[in-house]
Amino acid sequence: MKRVELGGLSVSAEGLGCMGMSSVYGAADWDESIATIRRALDLGVTLIDTAAAYGIGHNEVLVGRAIAGRRDEVQLATKFGMDFTTARGKVVIRNEPAAIKAAADASLLRLGTDYIDLFYLHRVNPQVPFEDSIGALTELVEEGKVRHIGLSEVTGEQLRAAHAVHPIAAVQSEYSLWTRDPETVVAEAARALGVGLVAYSPLGRGFLTGTVDPARLAPTDGRRRLARFTDEAATANQAIADGVRRIAEGKGATSGQVAIAWVASRSGTLGIPVVPIPGTKRVPWVEQNAAALQVQLTADDMAALDELAGQVVGARY
């Protein structure tokens, strides 16, 4: 798989999001998840994405076990700052320096490593000055515990403020055919500063694959709380999934591969590196996703997909 530069960090052009192996999307199997991560590495997918918040530490432990003995192959990305331990469904954003340093040590322990390639501030707490948070991250870089700093779900103004303290390698945001906020919220600043975009949920939380029936999601599946997956919205949004499927059928590809290929292709349009990190917890899907970058989209394909993007029904949250 080809490589992409994120602020000096060389990563695979597609990564693997591991959240669903521990939380949000219903039950997952530990052994199957481990096998999925290891198969991703075999396929050249080396940017492995996790977070302390996923399963409240469970996901980092799982990822650490999966990459044991193969650490040198991996660009390991994790995130800090979303504390779900206070009460179920409630989150406290912890961006203060002492909390950041404690979070880094805890993540290193769970991951079984002595450094993190890309350490993201998971969400912004506006009550904590950026210079304080990024200052603490800078100290972690100087100590060798962190190689590169990232931010998740930020605006261009926030990115510029952080970058003024220490270079930021990447911004992670939800980005797909039906979620295009980064194009207007942060892309301009990222382009000016040489910062990459890591796109999570490039498959529209699975909807764009055409294989997800919102009515049959497990009771524990977090998508049941999302507006786009309600009965009325899902029925309307099926036209988008159908449009993606028609393009995929013409190429002998899957809908998911077309959706991922679209996200990866936006690098040229936006003028910044764009790395999709589709999530899965099963080997067949990671194999299918890894082949997505071989799908070639024509100008006509892109125009048709852009038209579909304007039809989405329902807010992102």
Automatic annotation (TrEMBL):
GO molecular function, one term: oxidoreductase activity
Domain NADP-dependent oxidoreductase: 15-308
Species assigned in the record: Micromonospora musae
Superkingdom classification of source: Bacteria
Cellular-component GO terms for this entry: cytoplasm
Classification via InterPro entries: AKR, Aldo-Keto_reductase, NAD(P)_OxRdtase_dom_sf, NADP_OxRdtase_dom
Stated name of the protein: Aldo/keto reductase
Family matches, as Gene3D superfamilies: NADP-dependent oxidoreductase domain (3.20.20.100)
Keyword hit for Cell division: no
Signal peptide: none
